[in-house]
């Protein structure tokens, strides 16, 4: 147990209303996926779609750490023109995809089949056993998120849900479900931000620290 535990404890200290959320269990689930070569898929609607892209932004490049390439990786670039500069600018990443980022694909799926299928289609195509789906819906009942979660389970993936406080349809398909202590959409979103920042920082420490 390294510095990631200090990040976890700081979160519990700073956000006592969230201290009983299953943060450590979610961290272990995500870390196991990372260490086994898995990737993280993320999806949400509206403000949660922005959270989806935000999470991926923190995972795919340096968040709190620089994440320089190891020397053996830099060596592979050495014989390229400008390779030393290129390898010096690259950062190590945790493979993650925001399923909200593909406008043409989402609108094609929505138009050709159903808007409820915009995430399920991507999960089916991208998803593999060992991957994790982070599914964000403040109500817990958004049909397109639920269909994505169902598909993830069929693909052998783990599902990490983030919802409001009420029991929801999504929770039935989650391995871990964060139920933020509010039924107000904006408040759930406010709690969600420090939650995923903490998970991203913990993962970064464990993988690159």
From TrEMBL:
InterPro entries assigned: GmhA/DiaA, SIS_dom, SIS_dom_sf, SIS_GmhA/DiaA_subfam
Domain SIS: 30-209
Keywords assigned by UniProt, alphabetized: Isomerase
Signal sequence annotation: none
The keyword Isomerase appears for this protein: yes
Family annotation (Gene3D superfamilies): Glucose-6-phosphate isomerase like protein, domain 1
Pfam families referenced in this protein's UniProt entry, alphabetically: SIS (PF01380), SIS_2 (PF13580)
One GO molecular-function entry: isomerase activity
Descriptive protein name: D-sedoheptulose 7-phosphate isomerase
Gene name of this polypeptide: gmhA
